[in-house]
Amino acid sequence: MPLLQVDDLSVRFDTDDGPVHAVDRLSFTLDESEVLGVVGESGCGKSVSLMALTQLLPDTAKIGGSARIGDLDLLSASSSRVRKIRGRTIAYVFQEPMTSLNPSLRIGRQIEEVLQRHLDLSRRAARSRAVELLELVRIPAPQRRVGEYPHQLSGGMRQRVMIAIALACDPKILVADEPTTALDVTIQAGILDLMRDIRARLGTAIVLITHNLGVVADIADRVLVMYAGRKVEEAPVHDLFAAPQHPYTIGLLGAVPRPGSASTAGRLQEIPGRVPSLRELPQACVFADRCPRADDLTRSEQPLLREVRPGHLVACFHPGGAWSS
Amino acid sequence: MSYVDTAAATELSPRARRRRLLRKRFLRRPLAVLGLLVALAFVTMAIFAPALAPYDPTELDVTAILEGPTREHLLGTDELGRDILSRIVYGARASILAGVLATLLAMAIAVPIGVTAGYFRGWLDPIVARVTDVVLAFPFLILAVGLAAILGPSLLNATIALGVGAAPGLIRVARGEALSLREEDYVRAAIANGAGDTSIIGRHVLPNMTNTLIVQATVTIPAAIIGEAVLSFLGLGVQPPTPSWGVMLSAAQPYVNDAPRLALVPGLAIFFCSLSFNLLGDGLRDVLDPRTTR
Questions:
Q1: pLDDT digits (tens, 9 = 90+) for B147-160
Q2: Is residue A132 in a domain?
Q3: CATH code for the domain of A140
Q4: What is the pLDDT of residue A324?
Q5: Per the CB < 8 Å rule, is B13 touching A147?
Q6: Which of A34, A126, A138, B77 can pair with A121 through a Cys bridge, CB separation 3.0 to 4.6 Å?
Q7: A285 is a domain residue
Q8: Is B80 exposed, middle or buried (0-12, 13-18, 19+ CB in 10 A)?
């Protein structure tokens, strides 16, 4: 049984201009100590679906489906129940390390806060655990750093502190929402390395939300590709890069610069067109308007996910790698 | 920034190191230091008035009426032969007391209301916002005069009137701060990691508005000091013969031509007292901002 099982998760925002379907019947599972990459372009519902799990969305969001950890359905649980899950079972790291720490509290205090809240540790125990955590996220001189303020730390260091806060209560799931996007490439590598290390040492399952396929290739075990609120492809990381099935995935991979390969000679491929409006749910493939393979079938019916190989799912009528017509 | 004493600093606890850093930053601002010294002088004067004043401030001396400065009376005497210096020293009590207490009262009213409205929003917020807008349409002094007139003349009532009168402005500031702080990334991050409303307000909202509140307090203290003088001048605050700078100004009116000293001295006292608190406040704001590294 997987650690987390999400079934038919739908998120709808009721705005003044009518409903927006941000996530449409998304199902996925997460196993223990697994790294799941969630990729897709901005606004495809990556963050929203993971935020919905612990009811972090504003009240305007209407959420359907279920998300189970063991016997507990997170989506129908009471808000006080879910608050105990946040940070304890599912912890989050966000994109903006520069602003995600409280500027007027010492970083030690910010780590201790989570420990005291969830584990009811004493001040002293929380302090020594905070130092341990800073050591775990490889911050040099942790004894001294606990007494420092966020402005005394660099962006990479702050993101490490954020990870330390997230890991404070030894969560089962770490949701990292674009954790490296705001950082330098070298710092990025360090953070990814750290996450790999954490998974190996603590067995934490990681959901890595990103639009960076390089990051996914680097660290993920399995990848979920989202487009316009729907899951269009899901595969073990190796299969996805070796044999992408959905034309959108193929397009994404084509848009990644690859030094040394033939494609560097020409332009990077772009995916023509734009992401469709999420205002109505089309009775068609969401990607139809931008897809080179679209035909009458694509435009009149929504493709369901099917398994093309064990563990490799794709929602497309014309999947496959090499396509020529 | 100098690292000359790093070796010594590493032996200190972070807290002590921070205190030392703050002190160093503060001392580097001459105007702030000046403000602090002058404000402290006024506070000392108020506390130790009986010891510092050469005469009883209400003691009449008919042999020395409207005298200029002499060795016996350094600042001269007023129309009833009272020693002006002693009256200024005692007058500091009313001013400091009213300034500080009115500000504390205003804070005590404004911060809970403003933070609750700004943080929780809901139905309360628009009500609080509109009511403060309406009240703020009245000038601070007019409001204080009106309240003091209703409460009746006394120093305590003047202080209450000034505190209540200053509250709407502070409510607006506290509400605005809470509104913007609740949208901060670190608040979202804290929520995502399980923080409840109480700990978010206590750990994230209030600490991050202290700078603004300190600045507001140091604007409010001098305003209340001036307000006390105005109320006493109008007969709504301290009652004669008890000395107060406002009372002295009021009594000096008929003698402005013959003995301008009578108006000038309490006027200067009000000026320097409120200026010193303003300078101190500016300095504190610069020093306490954790983003200032100078």
A1: 999 999 999 999 99
A2: yes
A3: 3.40.50.300
A4: 40
A5: yes
A6: A126
A7: no
A8: middle
pLDDT at B9: 43
For the segment A236-255, the average pLDDT, to the nearest whole number, is 88
Best CA proximity match to B99, nearest among B235, B275, B247, B249: B275
Domain boundaries of chain B, sorted by first residue: 40-288
Strands A35-39 and A222-227: parallel
> Residue A325's pLDDT is what?
38
By the CB < 8 Å criterion, does A174 face chain B?
Answer: no
Which residues in chain A have their CB less than 8 angstroms from residue B15's CB?
147
Q: Looking at the domain assignment, is residue A307 inside a domain?
A: yes
Between 3.40.190.10, 1.10.1520.10, 3.30.360.10, 1.10.3720.10, what CATH number should domain B40-288 receive? 1.10.3720.10
State pLDDT tens for residues B167-209: 999 999 999 999 999 999 999 999 998 888 999 999 999 988 9
Question: Is B193's CB within 8 Å of A92's CB?
Answer: yes
**Region A13-17 average pLDDT:** 86
A100 part of contact set with chain B, CB < 8 Å: yes
A73 phi and psi angles, rounded to 5 deg: -95, 110
Q: How far is A96 from chain B (nearest CA, A)?
A: 8
Q: Does the residue A91 lie in any domain? A: yes
pLDDT in tens, B242-274: 889 999 999 888 888 888 888 999 999 999 999
* Cα–Cα dist A247/A233, whole Å: 10
